[in-house]
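Hey team,

Filing this mostly as a record. A colleague (T.K.) asked me to run one chain through the structure pipeline before their review meeting, and I want the input and output archived in the tracker in case anyone asks later how it was produced. No errors, nothing strange. Just documentation.

Input sequence:
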Amino acid sequence: SLVARKMETADNVIPSSNSVLAEVIYQHGTFYGVDSLQDMSAAMLNQFTAEITTSGPYYANWASLMGLATYEPYEVAIMGENASEKSRQLMKHYYPTALFMGGNKENLPLLENKLAEGRTMIYVCRNKICKLPVEEVEKAMRQLETD
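Output structure:
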């Protein structure tokens, strides 16, 4: 009998396991500053470029990752006691190329040296380069919308 390994790559009602894995690898590489993981995700994505451009709806999660990788995502770090609340306020708006992180601990490379005692600060960054930190959600939204 013939045995063939099936690999799920097309997105259907739910994203394919491989597109989700590629997205998680990309985000992990961004959060932890591991370029080799972003390269691995890009290599996975490159295998489906033709399918994404010709069969878009069936590769929607791949296309979303392509947009994230192409348009260099914002890294939004929200640090301090009210980080969860400010994060919820920001995420009510649509920022498809933003990766949100934060809390009360500097436990990721992108969060190091960003905790200001007694204040909740929002850092809008791209490629590890941050704009001036702000405390107000509205100011952070303007920073996200100016590029």
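Quick notes for T.K.: The longest strand covers residues 74-79. The helical segments are 17-32, 35-46, 49-54, 60-70, 83-91, 137-145.
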